[in-house]
Amino acid sequence: MALPQYLQLQIVSADRSLVNERVDEVEIPGADGYFGVLPGHTPLLAVLGVGDLWYRQGQDTHHLAIAFGFAEVQPDGVTILAQVAETAEEIDVARAEGAKKRAEERMVTPAADMDFERARVALMKALIRLQVAARARIRS
Amino acid sequence: MPSLIDLRRRIRSVKNTQQITKAMKMVSAAKLRRAQERIVNARPYAVQMQRVLASVASRVDPSIHPLLAVREPRPESKTLVVIVTGDKGLCGSFNTNVIKAAGGFIGSSHDTCVLGLVGRKGRDYFGRRGFEVLFDTIGLFQKLRYQDAQAIAQTAMEAFIGGKVDRVVLIYNEFKSVMTQRVVVEQLLPIRRGDVDDSSLAGAPPNQTDYLYEPSAQEIFNQLLPRYIEVQVYRALLESNAAFFAAQMTAMDTATKNSADMIADLTLYMNKVRQAAITREIIEVVSGAQAL
Asked: Is the pTM of this model over 0.90?
């Protein structure tokens, strides 16, 4: 059986659809680490973590910040069901900086009733957003 | 025959009503636009989720997760019926349709029905009729958030897993277009396994029949299935919300048109009365002059 030449990438978050395009390669932040997908990948169902998702179309790469959700991989397509997803261009850097600072403060001076896990997730989300936004700025 | 002044008063009052219905139509049109945008944006996620789940669920053993388990009908088995109505009236047959459909479902069901009521109208109707009510929420639609859907889904799943109910059904108005809403009765739990996929699977090459799971199938199902239920509830709420404003807009549009008709009729009648009065006065004057 001939391998498919491209992947149909679909990224949807709970309130909108972000990407629906033909791509050559995708790297996905799984819960247990990043993994790359090329056309012809074996069917896979994965839980997503917090991270930087990128996909390549020819020479162009695009970055997105992703937090939680699921990925379904088929030989000729990838479907991402993300809880939170933002493209690099639309990330609000100032807000992410603020969130990072707040999360850091909370972790440094823990209150009695603090949810450490929540603070950690918030910090991770903020860091990923900043990282993705920085990548987009380098390119442009 | 009513006097001229009475008629004028009547026309003015109808005009006032017309202004109110016109304003309400405008308001619901604006709200509808926002609600419609939300449901249109939320649909791709729900649809993709359903597709993924259908293809996955048809390949695994139902015993892998309690939410997939289909239970044998027993004499004492119960069904949780979640009924989504609006919080307000003035929306044509929107609430009546859901309530009627729900009543029909409960009447024809073999199981005892336990109710979950979303929206004030449903709560008012069913709350008074002596049904067992598991939960009710009102004022949800003023600011519809994902967390609200999450809470409802959570309650339903707990009741299902805890064995309090054997089936969960969702009844709501689906937003088809601005002019039409359709009442939908949907089984939420146990999750229906993709019966369509089963047939298409038979001809599929063997290397596509199973997935790799990361981290593990169990882990993924633990996360995916509750999420799926939440998304379905969320979508139902958004659908109902958009349908409500569409129904309200249509109802208010009809009301505005009706009052315009009424004003036209009343004005015609008033003019006839006026003319009759003038004619009578002239006759009185003329006959008075002849008598001299």
From this structure: no
Q: Does A4 touch chain B (CB under 8 A)?
A: no
3-state percent breakdown (helix, strand, coil) of chain A, nearest 5: 30, 45, 20
| CATH architecture for segment(s) A89-139 | Up-down Bundle (1.20)
How does pLDDT run across B40-49, given as a tens digit for each residue? Answer: 888 888 888 8
Yes or no: say if B84 and B172 are a contact pair by the CB < 8 Å rule: yes
CA neighbor of B105 nearest in space, from B42, B185, B49: B185
B120-127 and B94-108 helices, crossing angle to 10°: 40
Q: Which of residues 177-206 of B touch A (CB under 8 A)?
A: 205
Q: Which CATH superfamily is domain A7-88 in?
A: F0F1 ATP synthase delta/epsilon subunit, N-terminal (2.60.15.10)
Query: Angle at CA B88, nearest 5°, toward B86 and B90?
Result: 110
Q: Which residues of B are catalytic?
A: 91
Question: Which residue of chain A has the CA closest to B232?
Answer: A14
B178 CB neighbour count, 10 Å cutoff: 17
What's the complex ipTM? 0.75
Tell me the pLDDT tens digit for each residue of A75-91.
888 999 988 888 887 88
Task: Check CB contact of A9 with chain B, cutoff 8 Å.
Answer: no
- Measure the CA–CA gap between A25 and A6, rounded to whole angstroms: 8
B157/A contact by beta carbon, under 8 A: no
Is the separation of the CB atoms in B97 and B89 below 8 Å? no
Given the candidates 3.60.15.10, 3.40.1380.10, 3.40.1360.10, 1.10.1760.20, the CATH classification of the domain at B26-250 is 3.40.1380.10
Secondary structure of residue A6 in the 3-state scheme: coil
| Integer Cα distance of A103 and A93 in angstroms | 15
List the domain boundaries for chain A. Answer: 7-88, 89-139
Domain ranges of chain B: 26-250
Would you call A45 and B205 a contact, using CB atoms and an 8 Å cutoff? no
